[in-house]
Amino acid sequence: MKNNPLPRLDTSPELKEKLLSYCRLRKGEVWIDPVRGHRVGCLDATIPEHLSLIMAQELAQLAIHDPPYNLAALEIRDLEDYIKWSRIWVSNTWSMLDENSALYIWLGADQNNGFQPLPDFILMMREQPFTPRSMITMRNQRGYGTQSNWMAVRQELLYYTKGKPLFNVDAEYTDIPKILRGYYKTVNGQLTDNLERSRASTIRAGNVWVDVQQVFYRMEENISGCYAQKPLKSIDRIIRASSNPGDLVIDYFAHSGTTLLASEILQRKCYTIDLDPIYAEITIRRLEHLRATGKTGWQNGHPFEDIGTELQQSNTEHQSENLLF
Length: 325
Description:
Elements: H1 13-19, E1 30-32, E2 39-41, H2 48-55, E3 60-65, H3 79-95, E4 97-107, E5 109-110, E6 116-117, H4 118-125, E7 131-144, E8 152-162, E9 173-177, E10 185-187, E11 190-192, H5 194-197, E12 202-204, E13 208-209, H6 232-242, E14 248-251, H7 258-265, E15 269-273, H8 277-293, E16 310-313, E17 321-324
Helix pairs in contact: 3-4, 6-7, 7-8
């Protein structure tokens, strides 16, 4: 059994072309979930009319966006064009958020190319009406190695707010045990450590997350074919901290559908879009798969395994290898 039955779809144009016929959405179309009212659209985050279509005059309390990082995967834009493109969808997001809401944006930094686009994006965000709150670093357990530099094992998450949104402190507690002592506060004349001041056995999440496992093929939540899948636990943490059950969560770069899945599990409503009909279809199928099986992904499988035909894999890393669906 193959670890990843589908190759990376962003580098397999022939396979993507064949999968298009199995996608229920075309550009400009929206699928409405008959059970909880979630919405998935094959839409463009830079087109206001597209966002009006998916939002249906509603406003969201939380936005979680994971745009292309302008690095090795997908299309690489000129940096100026990337920032210009980002400025549009960020501005559009502001218009689709409630007066008291939160915005989280995953973004990368190419350490071999001036750390772009992260610093340029942060400077661009100074022009926006959002209030910056934090920069979170999520540690990947597996990074890409190098003999001439430090191993890259981090991803950045920018946290902004609009108005004065809620922040659920209790929801922020993690399963990280209290193992490090820190003497830095005097209580009633006594110097106390962090273990003494709180009765909780675990610690709250800070702005460095070391307890989130990067998704890989052995995990149930793995979505074969998706390149930039975010761990379900990371999205779960964001949703618990910055929304309440019944709130509307938006994600304008659906990819593997993790925000939709976490919203379903946590009883939030989610409106999500992707410009690519294949990723929009994967997002819908992942929700349906969860409801049918209770599973969060396809370990040693993939979203299109019910097709029942053989497709030729054109990925350059796996040339002339047949895939059995």
